[in-house]
# Entry
Amino acid sequence: MGIKDQAAEYRAALDAARAHASDWLASVPTRPVGPPLGADELLARFSMPLQEQPLDPAAVVDELARLAEPGLMAMPSGRFFGWVIGGTLPAAMAADWLVSAWDQNAAMRYATPATAAAEQVAGAWLLELLGLPTGADVGFTTGATGANFAGLAAARAHVLDQAGWDVAAEGMSGSPRVRVLVGAERHASIDMALKYLGLGRPAEVAVDSQGRIRPAALAQALDAGTGPAIVCLQAGNLHSGASDPMGEAAEISHRHGAWVHVDGAFGLWAAASPTHRGQLAGLADCDSWATDAHKTLNVPYDCGVAVVSRPQALRSVFGAHASYLVTDRDGPGDPFEKVPEFSRRARGVPVWAALRSLGTSGVAALVDGLVARAQAFGAALSRMDGVEVLNEVVFTQVCVSFGSDERTRNITARILADGTTWMSGSRWAGRDVLRISVSNWSTDGADVAASLDAIRRSVAAEDAG
Ligand SMILES: Cc1ncc(COP(=O)(O)O)c(C=O)c1O
# Structure
């Protein structure tokens, strides 16, 4: 195949992808949010024997789009409020396409200087926006689970080092026991990261009605033991949106010699808003932080961010040397030295594009807008008969009960069947709840109003039996 043929093949395949992407994005504002068909039906659509001969790339893209269409959830819709998903800003999506076209292995500064520079600058911008220490180590991970893992790996190495144990050389067998304390409502990814790191099950510390760690209980738990310790705090509770009292908890932890890690998958972004950063006062006193750019910042999956206050901390944990690599010995360190993987896509580049397109005021407006929509939901729902908003809506999450657990479950099912909006059930504070998570930049007042109407319809239908 000649050079021209290759270029033409790329162009045809990308043109096809662009047409399908545009159709999909144009359909998102009006289509029902849930996928028309389920996983088994999609499996049947995709199931076919792999043919022997190659196919035209553009035709493959057309076929993929046609097969997938009825199985796509409109997660980028302004009326999607499940889990904490986030949409994608236009500049970030386009930058992500470029990342695929450039196909850089973003591991080494020497080999891929453009993406390394964009990521380094994006990391520095993030530190500034979130008020984290200048010069802290930043690594772009797959998500917050990976970022929690990276931060806690740095924590483990540090507290064991303080206890005279070199975990990189000696491993965990025979090491001093590391105590890990977590709020009773930490995210499950903290437990996963601790498991991967051989740190075992953490000790739970009592929380208040919004899921915030109780400082007195934390002090008591730290007083009750000795030796290396790590405390995991949370910025943004999955159900209430509330954040732990950072400054107070960090001070107590440090007084006991503990490392303080913050899981701020979506809630860390409150720090980028002058209106909301007060709830994270003292954040910069902690030692490591994990967040997602694919949640509140609205870049495409996958993109988490691990930050460690001590320069070189991530590098000392994840750095590696191999004769076939050209490593950056004297500079700021290679991207691969800050995350638990060698080869990876340049996932920090869409972060650069998102931040560049928004500016500091745009990031603050994005965060403020999400909170304002959540508060609009909270206010409207609390005025509805038989509806109880269970949390103080201080950030982007709203948890609602419709009375008994059964009634809440039934109404949640009716909301999903209605299709106008998508918000899922959960269990919090001992009750079944409808959980509304606002994380898409495009959600506007009309989306909130349409979703509230769908909730009202569902309640009326349930009452009518
Ligand atoms: C508080 C918190 N931590 C961690 C995670 C895990 O993030 P990810 O799915 O990006 O790994 C989530 C996901 O919603 C979260 O809300």
Notes: The domain at 94-354 is CATH 3.40.640.10 (Aspartate Aminotransferase; domain 2).
